Amino acid sequence: MLFLAYDVGTSSVKSTLVNELGDIVSFANFDYPHDAECLHTEQNPYSWWEGVCITTKKLFERNPEYAVKVEAIGTGGHMLGCLPVDANGEPLRPAMLHSDSRSTYEEVIIADSIGRDEIYSRTGNILNAQSSLAKILWIKANEPDVYEKTAKFLQSKDYITSKLTGNIDTGDYSDGAHAHLMDINTKQPLVDVFIELVIDPGKITVFRRGTEIAGKLNREAAALLGLKAGIPVITGGGDGACANAGAGIAAGEMYCSLGTTAWLSYNSPTPVFDGAARLFNLPALDGEGVGVYGTTQTAGKCIEWASSLFGVSDVNEFNRIAAKAPEGSDGLVFLPYLEGERSPIFDTKARGVYFYIGTEHSRAHFLRATLEGVTLALRSILDVYRETRIIKDIRIIGGGGSSQLWRQMMADIFNVRTWSVTTIPSGVTSRGVALAAAVGAGVYESLSQAGTALSPAEESKPRTEFIELYNDRFQMFTGLYHRVKDLY
Description:
The protein is of the alpha/beta class. The protein has a domain at about 1-240: Nucleotidyltransferase, domain 5 (2-Layer Sandwich), CATH 3.30.420.40. About 35% of the residues lie in helices and about 20% in strands. It has a 7-stranded mixed beta sheet, sandwiched between helices. The radius of gyration is 21 Å and the shape is globular.
């Protein structure tokens, strides 16, 4: 049996075939063309569907016999977006991405009308200008014609599910809570909040378990994908919840996902409400328990940006050049806030800084400092977790997990053991949604039954000779932000 999983990222679509044991059988990737990014914080949703079609064809061109073995399909995708569609599921404007923070005025309206603490206690997520709820208000105020024509406001994975099934009403618990549209405690839409903000509740999707069947593959989509019509399609979920399911970690264990954004997470049976509102919660794909998260807004995005800025052709070259600079980058420090920051500071106005630049600094120093800056930002999240728990090991997933240089850097800066995993690091999200599809198809009764943990592979131990150096760099890193905060 095979399960087809789509991972809709902010830079590419990944299509993956996973067997019932959770093993990745085949994988294909589609990078969006340059015109897919309409603005810095918007994306053409048709490019998502184009990527799904192209990568699916690649999978079955390689192994035609796999097409008849697909038992169920699921989609995971980037979160905190906002895509208004009409009754036929057609987009009414480009999709607003998670990095879109134009809704600063609307954030204040929500804070004044509802209250930041109220939003956090009911959704388990921190209110800021990147909120999907704030984006909906922005569209209502600034694009009233679009708002009036909107049948539903979708997330990225919802749009692909609608193309597969024709059903546009396929929200899930993870996206619902993170978008500030669903009560994490009751799993019900925040209808009273919508009414208070004069948002039509009918334009918000129904929220359900990600393992539930949203519909069946329709004939039009089946013809485009080279599959038979009628295959069950699950609701799916946000990429964070999918990665949690794919990592298969036991309660209390921690992993780090290094993608365009990056996060640290562990699983908990109930939401964890941080008194200082620095961490947030995503319901699990099957609705049983939550993942507790701290996210840095730009991780792989910083690597991509620095590569372009310094003329680096690919990730391997980036790592090779960065390795030439010494640990600590001879004092060069990078604040990786290219698109604002989320945990633990939640500052949409923050921007990137290279500090302490001197004539001794070469391209290698800037590249290494970029990696170190992202890792120091993640340490600021890890230190929040350390207030209540002891952390000795972290598994590294996501595309950045392929870099031995970065995994060692994390071990040194975090002062914990880091581990690669025994699968394609960038395939963990797809593995999670595929296992959820297996549950939806009835192959397994639950995600806990379906999802065996990813075995740790290569260990990176913290090197004692660099712990004090990186502790000093971390103090400079956090102090630098507080000194320049008002200048933003």
